[in-house]
Every structure is written in structure tokens, then in C-alpha cells.
Amino acid sequence: MRFGFLSIVFLTFGLAALAMPPAGDAFETAPDLPIEAIHTASSTSSARPQYPSYTIPQFAEATVEPDAPLIDGVSGSHSVWFKWRSTLDSNVLFSGALAPGTNGPLLAVYSGDNLQALQLVSSEVPLSRLDSTLNPRFRAVEFQAKAGVVYHLRLDAQGALPANAWAAIGLYLPASNDAFVFRALIPLSGVETSFDYRLIAGTAEPKEPLTRGGDVPGASVWFEFLLPESGAYQVTVGGDADLAVFQGDSLASLVRRSWTVEAPGTVRGSIIHDERFQGLKGERLILAVSDGYALAGASRGTIRRVPLYDPVAPPKIQLGSQQVGPPKLTTPAIRPALLVEGRPNRIYEIQTSSDLRDWHHWQWHVPSDIHSTVDLENGAPPEPFLRVIAPE
Question: Both 224 and 261 in a single domain?
Fold first, then answer.
């Protein structure tokens, strides 16, 4: 009987222990943020902020302190606190998610030494930058961290929670090549070279050039590479990211070298974007990859050699008799045309555009037995701008 009594006492004690609040239930006893929750600048993890990497044990047993500040005017019911000391000045993204059957988390980041003197430093990531369809119980905030400062990270819930409710958090720093001056080297070799990129918590510098679509990127990463051979190349990225290839030594001096192969398409259910460019052996070029959401996990892109002649159907070529003209605008009802005198054994570049920003490119090779003037008419759908670039 004595053994049975001890078993009952141990079982009762064990159940009581399991019902204890999690570490960090109170501001004063907040632990350091677990390393499993931190994704540094060098991280290549494919984890998405929508699915944070660290699960808080026993979250359903958390309480809230009476004098804890409101979050967005809402009083929480299950607060958990963590401390994190920044080692550098950086943009930081802090995300949290709750189990199904809940209303979604409340998130905040503070600075200060005690609960009564806390200063809110975070701001919620706009809905336009969140893909909440991936996880509707997900939230994210971001802030500008200062080196040496201790930040207090808080996740809270609203109302009662089921006994098995869980919560997860993650903290993300930008990739090391977030800034143009810290661009990463892609060593090209062979026909195709892969490279990894990560846009989580990334930023865009004030003077960054626009990529496709005319939108200022919400985040970008930068690369540079040397061409091992002269010829044509194609860059492909996925995950809704945009890209462009440039030449130049500073943001202010960048000149775009790539053109859009075609509208974004899908391969095996994934969105892809392609850009193509030509260059000479030994030439150093710059690649920018950008994303307005900046919440996707690590992704992979490729740079590969392609045939010099673009397989996309070229504009119609007809014989004509007028002189070369500059880019010109025509009405939508008129098919634009330029008359170009072609020299034999030369490759001319034909470019068409609808906005003078994004140009579709083709090559026109003048046969050796023809020395004539040609009339270039745009193919369908018509684009009102047309220009022809002669070889040097």
C-alpha cells in the first residue's frame, strides 16, 4: 500500500509540473531567445517566417501580467517573453504563429529595463507583404536593431486557449548580401551554375534601380559574376522574385544589361522569372534579385548559357528603302515600323517595348549576299516603341 501511495503522489506531482507556465511567462524571468529561433545573415535555411522554427513548450499554460502593456490596444491572455541582444545594426523580422482554433498571435518588441518603462520599437509588417493564405494564424513585426541593445520580444494570445494549443516564434536577419556593397560572388562554370538567395527581413537601398514591373523592391540581394565565355546567358529565379542584370560600380552608375525573355510563367507549379543578357569573356556584371514580400525562405536560381539567337519569334522583316530612324511612338492602331539599312555579315539587335522601360530583344542576322534596307514591323501584340541597335 505504501508503494501505491507514493505512486499516486508522484503522478500528482508530475501532472502539476506539466501544468506549470512556460519559461518567460513573466518579464523579469524572460530567458534568452533560443538559438533554434534565430536565423542569421549566413543562414540558408528554407524555413519560412509563416512557419516559425521554435515551438514554445507549454504555451497554453502561460499567463499575462496585470501591468503588461497592451498590444495594438488589445489585452493579451497568454504572454511569453524572450530577450535578444543585437550584435549589429540591422533590420530584423520577428514572427509568430499559433495553433489552429485560435485568433492568431499578438507580437511586440520593446526596449527598456523594466515592465513599466518599456518602449515599443516594432511595427507590424503590412498585410501587402504577407501571404497569410499560407498560415492565417501568422503575424510578423520588424524593427531596426542597434548593436549592443537588449530587446524584449513578446508573443501573446487572445482569449482562452485549448489545452494543447501551441505557439512558435522565429527571428530573422537579412542576408549578408542585402546591400550592394556586400554583393556575393557567383563563380560561373560550365553550362549552368546555381546560386542560393534569401530575402527574409531584407531591405532596399534608397537609390536602387527598378527591376521589372516598375515597382520599388521591398527587399533585394546582390551578386556579381565574371563571364567565363562570350555569348548569351539566361538567369532564372523562382518564388515570385524579380531580377535584373546590370553593369556598373555603384548604385548610381548601374546600367541595365538584361531583358525579359517573356512574361512570368510557371514550371511544375512554381512561378519563375527569366532574364537574358549578352556579354564578353571576362566581363564583370551585377545581378539583383528583389521581392516585395521579403518573406519567402531561401530559394535557388540559375545562370546558364543559351544560344546566341533568341528562339522567341522575331518581328516581321520586310524590304524597304528609307533611312534608319530613332525610337518613335505610334498610335495603338498603327503597327510601328523602322527602316534600317542592314550591312552584310552583321548581327543587329531589334528591341520592342510598351513603356520604354522593359524591352523585348531579338537578333537579326544580315546574310552575306544582301546589302539592303529593311522595314521591321512589330509582331503581335503590338508594342508602340521600336528600336534597332547596330553592332559596333
Answer: yes
